[in-house]
Design brief:
This protein is an alpha+beta fold. It folds into three domains: 3-85, Winged helix-like DNA-binding domain superfamily/Winged helix DNA-binding domain (Arc Repressor Mutant, subunit A, Orthogonal Bundle), CATH 1.10.10.10; 92-131 and 230-347, GAF domain (Beta-Lactamase), CATH 3.30.450.40; 133-228, Heat-inducible transcription repressor hrca homolog, domain 3 (Enolase-like, domain 1), CATH 3.30.390.60. It is built from twelve helices and ten strands. It has helices at residues 3-22, 28-34, 41-53, 70-85, 92-101, 106-121, 174-188, 193-207, 211-228, 249-260, 262-272, 320-337; strands spanning 57-58, 67-68, 124-128, 137-144, 149-156, 161-167, 232-235, 279-282, 294-303, 306-315. Strands 7-3-10-9-8 form a five-stranded antiparallel β-sheet, sandwiched between helices. It has a three-stranded antiparallel β-sheet with strand order 4-5-6, covered by helices on one side. It has a two-stranded antiparallel sheet with strand order 1-2. The radius of gyration is 26 Å and the shape is elongated.
Length: 349
């Protein structure tokens, strides 16, 4: 790579790093004093002009310094990628220990992980619970708990258990319940969750010739639909709203609108999922003007082979150097620790 291009790259990286810290237009003087000591003022001014002509930075006011554009952020992410690959985070042993201790309660473990991610990043963290529809049913248990309530426990072949509590409007005896559960295990075990929820139970309801069986199948169908949903959980302290981007009520409302659009976020993450360990969605990737100033940084993880997503939602001006390797390492640790046969009680120290 030519010397001039290398210098332009370093100038862009320095400008974005400084803007992320100060949230103010960056002057050539600041870049000279803090980052580019061996570049003359005249050369630096020319380089900034070139970066502006390339639409990588812009000048909000004639007398102001420069700020990165969305295109500039994208180029910055490309340039820092080799540096980020070398960064690894401490604390993964603690994360592994947490997963082992809660190996029978994965949702609780993921909740703790989400809390820690929010604390580490000072941003709004999220975990999209694993997509279980691709798994296979290993066992079905149904228990009566108190009046008018049933608890459905669906065990997957991967070792993951999903539990749903539903109201019971019909009276059913213990003997009837046991008989139904035995029958359903014979019919459903070994089938894919998606097929059970979207085809098998619907067909069984049509062919049911008993009112109790028909009602029970409807309730069971609700339970399977519920566990098949991909739901995003958020966590974050009020401090993330102290960022300058949230000084206006308008921006806060835009951000809240993004949080509430769960289907959109899930579809967007699926759309931009790549071979990279961590993906960054920002600017026009969201395809909606209200959300151009935000970034979604996420990784795909697996729990017992079942996929999910985790990451942070933040202003586009955020600490990519810190967030990308942290999210990457958390996702990799979850996946590697919960591979089939690895998470067992004997590992607890």
């Amino acid at each position: 790579m030519k010397k001039n291009q290398l210098r332009l790259n370093e100038t862009l990286k320095a400008l974005v790093d400084e803007y992320i810290i100060c949230c103010e237009p960056v002057s050539s003087r600041i870049l000279n004093e803090k980052y580019l000591h061996n570049v003359s003022s005249a050369t630096l001014r020319l380089d900034l002009l070139k970066l502006e002509q390339m639409n990588l930075i812009s000048q909000p006011h004639t007398s102001a310094g420069r700020i990165p554009t969305i295109k500039g952020y994208r180029e910055y992410l490309r340039l820092i990628e080799p540096e980020i690959e070398k960064v690894s985070y401490e604390g993964m042993d603690l994360l592994r220990s947490l997963l082992v201790r809660n190996y029978k309660d994965t949702p609780r473990a993921l909740h703790y992980i989400m809390e820690n991610l929010a604390k580490e990043t000072d941003q709004l963290s999220f975990v999209a619970e694993p997509e279980v529809s691709s798994g296979y049913l290993a066992k079905l248990d149904v228990f009566s708990i108190g009046e008018n309530k049933l608890i459905f426990v669906m065990s997957l072949d991967s070792g993951l258990d999903k539990t749903v509590i539903l109201k019971c409007d019909n009276e059913i005896t213990e003997a009837q319940l046991k008989k139904l559960v035995r029958y359903l295990n014979d019919e459903l075990v070994g089938l894919q969750i998606y097929d059970i929820a979207n085809r098998v139970l619907l067909e069984m309801q049509k062919n049911a010739d008993n009112s109790i069986v028909s009602w029970f199948l409807r309730e069971l169908h609700k339970a399977f639909i519920e566990i098949s949903d991909f739901f995003i959980h958020y966590d974050g302290s009020i401090s993330f709203l102290e960022q300058k981007e949230f000084d206006s009520k308008k921006n806060i409302l835009k951000f809240m609108g993004l949080l509430q659009s769960q289907d959109f976020l899930l579809n967007t993450m699926r759309k931009y999922q790549s071979d990279k360990e961590t993906n960054v969605i920002l600017g026009e990737d969201f395809a909606i003007n209200n959300w151009l100033d935000f970034a979604l940084i996420y990784s795909k993880y697996e729990v017992f082979g079942i996929p999910g997503y985790l990451g942070v939602l933040a202003p586009v001006r955020t600490e990519y150097r810190k967030l990308i390797p942290l999210i990457r390492d958390v996702a990799k640790t979850i996946t590697n620790t919960t591979r089939r046969g690895m998470v067992v009680p004997q590992e607890i120290k």
